[in-house]
Amino acid sequence: MFALTSSALATACRRSLSTAAPALASLYNPTEEHELLRQTVRAFADSEVRPQALEHNREEKFNLELFRRLGSELGLLGITVPEEYGGSGMDAVGAVIAHEELSAADPAFTLSYLAHSMLFVNNLAVNGSHEQKLKYLPKACSGEFVCGMGMSEPAVGTDVLNLTTTARANDDGSWTLNGAKMWITNGTVSKDRELGDAFLVYARTAEGPKGISLFLVDKGMPGFEPGAKIEDKLGMRASSTSGLVFEDVVVPADALVGEVNGATLCMMRNLEIERLTLAAMSLGIARRSIEVMNNYSTERMAYGKPLREHGQMKAHLANSYAEYMAGRAYTYEVASRLELDSYGNQLDTDGVKLFAADMAKDVADRAIQVLGGYGYVGEYEVERLYRDARLISIGGGTNEAHQNNMSKVMARIQQFE
Amino acid sequence: MAANGAFGRVLVGVKRVIDYAVKVRVKPDKSGVETVNVKHSLNPFCEIAVEEAVRMKEAGLATEVVAVCVGPKKAQENIRSALAMGADRGIHIETDEEVAPLNVARILAEVAKAEEPSMFILGKQAIDDDSNQTGQLLGGFLGWPQGTMASKIEPVSDTAVHVTREIDGGLETLELSLPAVVTADLRLNKPRFAALPNIMKAKRKKIDAKTPADFGVDMASSLQTLEVNEPPVREAGIMVGSVDELVEKLKGDGLI
Ligand SMILES: Cc1cc2nc3c(=O)[nH]c(=O)nc-3n(C[C@H](O)[C@H](O)[C@H](O)COP(=O)(O)OP(=O)(O)OC[C@H]3O[C@@H](n4cnc5c(N)ncnc54)[C@H](O)[C@@H]3O)c2cc1C
């Protein structure tokens, strides 16, 4: 009797991981296009992305060639961009699917994808002018350009509205940038610190939290140099992180994105999709960790029976699955109502990341526990996933920043739906 | 050499099957295998057939690629996969009956008569029943030449192709006059990943909805499934220390 129930449960479990039950399938794959997107990205992730992950993690090397294929072969780099600019015209759910599926294979590679496709490409698609989009987006969508976004600085992160990089208006309408950025994903794209091709850079144009503007800065502009390449990260090692240095960098008038002193809105809009897709990356990490521990616990024997038949191992498996599904439902529910050019969804875009980041970290941690000594070494994958998972409660906003933001929004609400 | 567009239309057969990665289970009543809530996909050999046809179109040899599927309502997803890979339109012959090779070949033959392609490419077999019959039956019904288990298809003129087949002991190359039926083997090509822009375009491509009755075909099978069973569980092997010991064991078990 007992054996029968548990094996029926195992069957159900395996199925939910390969195909969601029909009712929920529409939340995760609302249309046939979403379903096909998931299939194609998963197939690519399994056959092309996962096999290179361990080696690139060990060498702390960004896989530029594979990255370009996301554009040229799959059309993923401009996932949310209208077709007229070389994109694929998908919505926030599409972006979540792509990040979730890629991250299940290699979170570090996916972080580089996110910095390019969400922080630069989607940011410009939402906030830029028609001419700016025509100039940058086709190349960024095809993979010819690798791009990033610079907000954080050596001395400001959470407190980003106090940033100190400056842009001074010149008489001819051009701007002169001075200062430094830190922690910039895709800041450099090679071991010998070759700069990424183009960046969206936030800089101060007036005093106070509203005195911030957004600029397009290209590789090769005089005075624009790479800062230190940040080595020895705990995780996300196959994603390149660097400083950027601006010394009297003159950018033309048409490099200004949006209004002068109007970048706080651009920043807030873009942070919402950034946090949502970081949550999606956490889902990928959690799903893969569950797959690994689930299969291992069937095969590995202890005291004459599979690990999965030992009570404490059951807790690791079941709790992980339930938490993963809760995070997944929350993330997709928020994605399904996020308009890409909207602002005002902060409670839930912070909320999904706050929940999913720690969920993935806990699930990866349990996966290591289930695998025992094998879990502690790179070859068994969960060791890397565990280290990569750790970033998501820091990058794109720390857990504490999310708690502060959410508590502020919640103060205005008396009753919840 | 074949001139531009020389092949005209190319039809491709596509079948919905249980995904290759799913561990198949027999139903408790032994009437078949579990299919409810099980992941299905486009048969991998059909994917190769679609890829080949799309490459012919990209090379300017074919003018149109049409994906033809006999299967349940949900098979529309799989036709959509073929459209996302680059097929131009689809024909869906909807049925909930078992899709046995004989009836499918009868329907495909009628489709071919209506569409008049110069080539009909199918997978060499579907990974669910592994029949490896549909292409051969189709060639028979149409009276067209057939090149089965193709590892290479090369145009030689506007009216003929060379088809290389992997056979025991080497490769065989046949010259087929068109129209012809070709079935795809594993090494014919490596199918592409459907690119997202093409997935979005696939939504706008047309799928004609038909039924077997439209082609005068009765789906009742002449074969009856009595019982389906799991394959016997393989017993664990043993390690032997030497060739002598191996020979002794085999003799002892009466195997040699
Ligand atoms: C791998 C990686 C990639 C990154 N990529 C990018 C990128 O592409 N572009 C970019 O602009 N940035 C990027 N970042 C930077 C990232 O966004 C910041 O690290 C993050 O915002 C935190 O800022 P900080 O590191 O300066 O920490 P700090 O802001 O100094 O925070 C230190 C600690 O203090 C806490 N704290 C700060 N303020 C408060 C408060 N008011 N109340 C309570 N606690 C508080 C924080 O929560 C944290 O625990 C990246 C970072 C990493 C590690």
UniProtKB/TrEMBL annotation, chain A:
Catalytic activity: (2S)-2-methylbutanoyl-CoA + oxidized [electron-transfer flavoprotein] + H(+) = (2E)-2-methylbut-2-enoyl-CoA + reduced [electron-transfer flavoprotein]
Keyword RNA-binding carried by entry: no
Iron-sulfur as UniProt keyword: no
Cofactor(s) the record lists: FAD
Keywords for the protein's UniProt record, in alphabetical order: FAD, Flavoprotein, Oxidoreductase
GO-annotated biological processes: L-leucine catabolic process
GO molecular function: 3-methylbutanoyl-CoA dehydrogenase activity; flavin adenine dinucleotide binding
Domain Acyl-CoA dehydrogenase/oxidase C-terminal as annotated: residue spans: 267-410
InterPro entries from the UniProt entry: Acyl-CoA_DH_CS (IPR006089), Acyl-CoA_Oxase/DH_mid-dom (IPR006091), Acyl-CoA_Oxase/DH_mid-dom_sf (IPR046373), AcylCo_DH-like_C (IPR036250), AcylCo_DH/oxidase_C (IPR009075), AcylCoA_DH/ox_N (IPR013786), AcylCoA_DH/ox_N_sf (IPR037069), AcylCoA_DH/oxidase_NM_dom_sf (IPR009100)
Entry-linked Gene3D superfamilies: Acyl-CoA dehydrogenase/oxidase, N-terminal domain, Butyryl-CoA Dehydrogenase, subunit A, domain 2, Butyryl-CoA Dehydrogenase, subunit A, domain 3
Residues of the Acyl-CoA oxidase/dehydrogenase middle domain: 149-249
Pfam families: Acyl-CoA_dh_1, Acyl-CoA_dh_M, Acyl-CoA_dh_N
Ranges for domain Acyl-CoA dehydrogenase/oxidase N-terminal: 31-144
Entry similarity comment: Belongs to the acyl-CoA dehydrogenase family.
Protein name: Isovaleryl-CoA dehydrogenase
Natural source organism: Thecamonas trahens ATCC 50062
TrEMBL record, chain B:
SUPFAM superfamilies xref list: Adenine nucleotide alpha hydrolases-like
Domain of life: Eukaryota
Keywords, in A-Z order: Electron transport, Mitochondrion, Transport
Domain Electron transfer flavoprotein alpha/beta-subunit N-terminal: 30-219
Compartments (UniProt record): Mitochondrion matrix
UniProt-listed CDD domains: ETF_beta (cd01714)
GO terms (BP aspect): carboxylic acid catabolic process
GO molecular function annotation: electron transfer activity
InterPro entries listed in its UniProt record: ET-Flavoprotein_bsu_CS, ETF_a/b_N, ETF_b, ETF_beta_N, Rossmann-like_a/b/a_fold
Position of the signal peptide: none
Cellular component GO terms held in the UniProt record: mitochondrial matrix
Complex formation: Heterodimer of an alpha and a beta subunit.
Described function: The electron transfer flavoprotein serves as a specific electron acceptor for several dehydrogenases, including five acyl-CoA dehydrogenases, glutaryl-CoA and sarcosine dehydrogenase. It transfers the electrons to the main mitochondrial respiratory chain via ETF-ubiquinone oxidoreductase (ETF dehydrogenase).
Recorded family membership: Belongs to the ETF beta-subunit/FixA family.
UniProt-recorded name of the protein: Electron transfer flavoprotein subunit beta
UniProt organism field: Thecamonas trahens ATCC 50062
